Amino acid sequence: MSCCKDKMEPVAADSCCTPRETSQDAAVTMHKTGCGCVPVVEDKQSRRLVGVVTERDLSHRVVAENRRPSEVPVEEVMSPVSACCGLNEPLDEARRKLDAHPATSLPVVDEGGCCAGTIRSRHLGGV
Prior knowledge:
Blueprint: H1 4-7, E1 9-10, H2 23-33, E2 37-41, E3 49-54, H3 55-63, H4 74-77, E4 79-80, E5 85-86, H5 91-100, E6 105-109, E7 115-120
Parallel strand pairs: 5-6
Antiparallel strand pairs: 1-7, 2-3, 3-4, 6-7
């Protein structure tokens, strides 16, 4: 049976952001990676996952409120890690989590809770 590590896209430190970075930084990272979510990590060395910021978070909590993205810290708009996938988690469980949350992608974490990658709904098409 396939698991998340088989379908995820590995994530590099520069594909994550910290809570202290700005919403603009998160949007630039989304644009650069082509992913609709950016893992939010304690720091880029450990990549310990503390949340996620999504396109929806930015559109609803920054743009819709007419806030300046360059002045809004990620910690004010990020979502907690209510759904993430483990490396060895079955793909059908990842699909269930994606269906339960308004997201098109989720972070994938290792056994220590550090971000290892992201899995997108399009990766789960054959499940």
